[in-house]
Every structure is written in structure tokens, then in C-alpha cells.
Amino acid sequence: MKSSNEQKYQEREKRLLDAIALREPDRVPVVPLFAFFNCYYSGISPREAYVNPEKALEAWRRTIYDFEPDATYSVNFTIYAMDEVLSGLDFLAMKWPGHGVPDNQSFQFVESEYMREEEYEELFHNPSEFYLRKLLPRLAGNLRGLAKLPPLVTATLGYVWPAVLPAFADPEVQLALETLLNISKKQAQWVKIYGAFAQELVASGFPSIKEQTVLAPYDLVADNLRGTTGAATDLLTQPDKLKRAVDQLAPFMSTLGINGAKAKKNPRVFIPLHKGTDNFMSVRHFKEFYWPSLQKLIVDLVEGGCNPYLLIEGLYNKRLDIIKDVPPGTCIYHFEGTDIFEAKKKLGDTVCIMGNFPNSLLATGTVEQVKEHTKKLIDVCGDGGGYIMSASALIDEARPENVAAWMETSKEYGRYR
Hints:
GO terms for molecular function: uroporphyrinogen decarboxylase activity. It holds the Pfam family URO-D. InterPro entries: Methanogen_methyltrans, UROD/MetE-like_sf, Uroporphyrinogen_deCOase. Helices cover 52% and strands 7% of the residues. It is an alpha/beta fold. The longest helix has 33 residues, at 171-203. The two termini are 24 Å apart.
């Protein structure tokens, strides 16, 4: 006979897989993406979570065991790295509690044009060299010395190689190399601690909604290289180079997603969508620059045995007919602000719908309002299966009594049989 926890794991995993496959599970799965709510609920600050790994994991542990979701949400997606790692890098692409934002608030990404508009050709010519000697020094202050490294091709020149060794005597180069050595060890420690906790959750009967994360190819450029403004400008001033960059980076995302899912033994690959919203891009540009590479990524992942899990941020009310063209019964579309009832109508026979419970209602509503809206979502989106209950976005601020009412109502009212 299976142990109680193993049985719970199998029941929860089956509930998820049935919903993804557009079947009716025993009930609607409920998967809240608990983020810094875990800290507030457990009585610690986000700052403490970044400084003390054990406090962070205990906050996640208490929240998960108290509310018993059908799947958990990775702690390492809320806390990418501990304070000592980010501080040791002098990481410039993020503000985190105690470093740019108050101790009791969430992190914030710092977007910038980390790749200049005239540097596309350098990216195309040698991506590895560009990331090492251009991008990393701009992302982390203590890695600025990498910009002074001689070209990597020098190492292939044999007798010329000793002539470039003095470059490694530069104090900034030495700082960069020492930083990479020391910080990589610290990050490895955090990964080991988190990995053990992830296994603990599995052993306790909780699947994870995702482990591996990749980006839509366009977002890889617009988020991490050119920034929102830079990418939007490139759409008009150098569209061919932008499209070439997206197409060149796309296969890397597919490979990363498939290999990561296999290594982590979780088929659900998370893809947060950022820059393709109704407000950021015209339908014409979406069809030309954003969707083709994203659609290819989705198909590649499905063919690799994965279930793409798209967190569709912003509004996609004008794109529902476009994003319907994916393999049926394989994907999760988690909507933030999109009209989810219209999404269910147009996409319900193709993808599993997820989310859209207002975070604001969890934070400021009454218990009765929470119960009422939960039932409304289940009545419409849960009809016939293919729905996962979740909030619109990551949950930070929320009233515990509202979260409890939401979870309980979802589990009781959302039964199919």
C-alpha cells in the first residue's frame, strides 16, 4: 500500500495533469503562487528571508503545510539568490529588500539597455564573448573587470597566449575572477539547501507547479538586453536585427526548457510573458515579432514531452484568437488581467485556463466576497474541466482569513464528483 504522503502526491499530480489535458479531475486544482505572503504570514520580513535561508524555508514550509495547495511554487523564483550573493556581485539589475527597497517589501527588477543599439552585430558574431565581456560587467559592479579580459580567441594562438597574461594582473580583472569563484560557492550552497527543501515537499505529498523557467524569445531581448524602450524603438528603426536576435536566441530557450524539465523531473516549463501585451505592442507587431518564436518554443517543448505553463501578464484580450494555435491539451495559460471568461470561451477547448482571482480581493476584500468570486470563477471557468484556480499574480499582501476562505471554497465547491 502506498504511504499517505505518496498517495496525496499522486492524487494532486493527477488532478493537475487531468486539468492540463482538459479532462475533469475529481475537483478544480487550487495552486496559489505564494511569494512574500509566506514571510508576512510567518512573521518575518522579506529582508530576513534574503539573509537567513533557514528562516525563508521555514516560512515557506509553514504556509504550505497550513494551506495545503495542490501544487507549490518555487521558493527560488521568489528569492533568486541570497543577500550575500547579490551583494557580493554588486548586482545592478535588481533591487531587493534592504538594498534599494524597504526591508518589508518585494524585490524589483532594474531594467536598462544592457545591450546598446549598435551592438547587435557583436551579439550575432560571438554571443559567448558578448555575454562575458559586455553583458556581465554591466549587470554586476564587481564583474566590471571582465570587460578588460583579452578576446577568448587569443587562447587558441599558442605562442601568443603568454603575452596576454599580464591582463590578469589588473586589480579589476582579479576582483571579477575572485568574485565569480567565491560567489559561485555561496550560490551553490543556497541551491543545495533549496534542493533539499524541494525534495522534502515532494516527500510530504506536494508536487511543484513548475521547476524550469525560460523566457519568450522576444522577452529575452526586451527584458534582459535592450529593455522595453530599446526593443520598442528597434521594432521601428532596425526591425531586421531585432527579429534576427529573437530567432537566434529561440533555440537556446527550447533546449534549456527541455533539458531543465528532464533534469528536474517536472514536465511543466514556466514561461512568464512580459512585452507582448495589448498595451505594449500592436497586433501586427505581435504576429510578426512576438508570437512566431513563442509558438515555436511551445511546440518544441510539447514535442520534448513538456507542458508549457505561460503566465500571461497584462492584457491579451486582442490576442486570444492568435494564441489558440497550439497543440490541444498540453498547455497552461495563466491569465493576470485578461478577461478570463472570454478566454475560457475562446480557448477552453485548447488550453487549460488558470488564474485571474484578483489579488486585490485577497488583500482588501471580505471573506464573503472572496467566497462569492471563487464560486463564480469555478462556475464559468471550471465548467467541463480544464481550469486551475489561482490568483492573478504572485501573492504578497493578503489577509490570511481570505486566503483560507479561498482555499477552502475552491476545494469544497470545485468538486466535479
